[in-house]
Amino acid sequence: MSHTTIVSAPGKVLLTGGYLVLDPTYTGLVIATSSRFYSVIRTQPASSQSTGGRIIVKAPQFDNASWEYTVTVENGADVTVQPIECENGKNKFVEIALQKTLALIRALKGPSQADSLIKRGTNLEVVIVGDNDFYSQRQALEALSLPRSMSSLDRLQPFAPQNTTLAAVHKTGLGSSAALITSLVTALLQHFELSPDLDLVHNMAQYVHCLAQGKVGSGFDVCSAVKGSQVYKRFDEQVLRTLMDKTVVTGQEILETVRPSPSWTTQTTPIALPPLVRLVLADVDAGSDTPSFVGKVLKWRKDNPEAAHASWSKLNDHNKAVEQCLRSLSSFAAQDPDSYRMAVKLFIKGEPATFESKFNHISLALHGLRDSMQGLLSQNVRSAMKMMGQANNVPIEPDEQTRLLDACLKISGVIGGAVPGAGGYDAIYLLVVDLEDSPAELLPNSVISEVEAIWQGWKELSVCPLSSRADAGGLKVVQNLEDVKGLKTAVEKAFV
Ligand SMILES: Nc1ncnc2c1ncn2[C@@H]1O[C@H](COP(=O)(O)OP(=O)(O)O)[C@@H](O)[C@H]1O
Ligand SMILES: C[C@@](O)(CCOP(=O)(O)OP(=O)(O)O)CC(=O)O
């Protein structure tokens, strides 16, 4: 068994497909982020007489965030993971991940091999950390008297302590629990020397996440944590129903359910943002918690099938147009990078689509992307989402966010933007043209700095940028703690 296992999984931003992605008729366009969760596992030596072991899990970014479990393997019976009661309370997500994944490991290895391995190998220490962007950094910046800017965020300590508890922390909506579960489940499998098929890992992470959440969501967050940026079509929830409804589940039953099979109808089509197009995110603090809108929207859909069908189909058309423009732009950039760069520069300057034949198709795709995403007057993703909210009496794109987005969209070089996922007050995203990687072309005011200036001066809502970028990658096994900036310091302090 390897000494230290490190596995990371990314966060997510659902650009288009909120609500629709709950229905397998439709899809969600999800971009994985550079912000990641890391699960680090180390084995402590156990006595040869032991019938099992202990697992200690720590989340060093939070106050009172360590949990301990006993692991027992009785002859013939399944492996049992029991939390040791402590004042920190329970961590349901971690507990379920440990219980179900050890049971799966036993089923995958076969009892004879697994039991001795688990007896020898389950004195585990697990440390879980998430990149700063998963949590609002507004207070950390204020404490250091730093302006709310991306360069200030870069000055914060990686995996910084949040000076609060997990229950009280202000999340930014990047999907901490999905990234946590996915990295932890995979790290456990890896630590027990299993390198299962990615689809099995995906199915298992979906199962654990659904069980911990107590419901079967669309699962786009878990799927992107495993496989990265994609157009996601969900699995049929029936595939997990039996396991979810049972109180006692064996490792063998888990294996039978999560083993890749035609019952798992998930479809993943990879996608990446085109070159020179950058995703920027802001954490928006409106001083209120966003309630869950899903129940209300689905009830409205059930009660108004005809109107809902019309509005779902229209929104789906706009979502598909966004996907198509992104794909066209990526392929144009690959075919003729110089013309692509020229077209992007013209777009930043706010010039209309050129009739110069060499870039006409590229300019049209850039304008097409903008038109299918933004603005409230015409037919596009934003207007359709806002109307969906209005029909349901749910602030999917609240008026405050509308005003903020409209101000950002006036900047030339901002292609589009919206409220991600389920919408509400929590966050916004923008797609902007970014030429900053080519110093010769540095514009006097980069688009990003204009966006930041608007955010910093915005009075109606408190807007704080996130440093996260789009990153197509999914799960990663990290070889050494030193390979990720700040990880060694964050993790080693936590190991006993
Ligand atoms: N750093 C962490 N360490 C351990 N558990 C965590 C960590 N971050 C999140 N969790 C678990 O995930 C739960 C949050 O899940 P949820 O409210 O669904 O958040 P999200 O919307 O970000 O996915 C927490 O209650 C905790 O159990
Ligand atoms: C409404 C949804 O389709 C999208 C929600 O996307 P968010 O990105 O808002 O998700 P959370 O991480 O749960 O806050 C529900 C779903 O797909 O499960």
Helices and strands in order, then pairings?
Elements: E1 4-16, E2 28-43, E3 52-58, E4 66-73, E5 79-84, H1 92-109, H2 111-121, E6 124-130, H3 138-143, H4 150-154, H5 176-191, H6 198-213, H7 220-227, E7 230-233, H8 238-245, H9 251-258, E8 267-270, E9 277-285, H10 294-303, H11 305-335, H12 337-348, H13 357-373, H14 381-392, H15 399-409, E10 414-418, E11 427-433, H16 447-457, E12 462-465, E13 476-478, H17 487-494
Parallel strand pairs: 3-6
Antiparallel strand pairs: 1-2, 1-13, 2-6, 2-7, 3-4, 4-5, 7-8, 9-11, 9-12, 10-11
Helix pairs in contact: 1-2, 1-5, 1-6, 1-9, 5-6, 5-7, 6-7, 10-11, 11-12, 11-13, 11-14, 12-13
The structure holds adenosine-5'-diphosphate and the ligand C[C@@](O)(CCOP(=O)(O)OP(=O)(O)O)CC(=O)O.
Note down, in words, how this protein is organized.
With about 500 residues, this protein is of the alpha+beta class. The protein has two domains: about 5-270 and about 475-495, 2-Layer Sandwich (Ribosomal Protein S5, domain 2); about 275-465, GHMP kinase, C-terminal domain (Alpha-Beta Plaits, 2-Layer Sandwich). Helices cover about 40% and strands about 20% of the residues. It contains 17 helices and 13 strands. The strands form two sheets. Strands 1, 2, 3, 4, 5, 6, 7, 8 and 13 form a nine-stranded mixed sheet that branches. A four-stranded antiparallel sheet has the order 10-11-9-12. A hairpin with a 7-residue loop joins strand 3 and strand 4 (about 65-75). Helix 1 packs parallel to helix 5 (about 175-190) and helix 6 runs antiparallel to helix 7 (about 220-225).
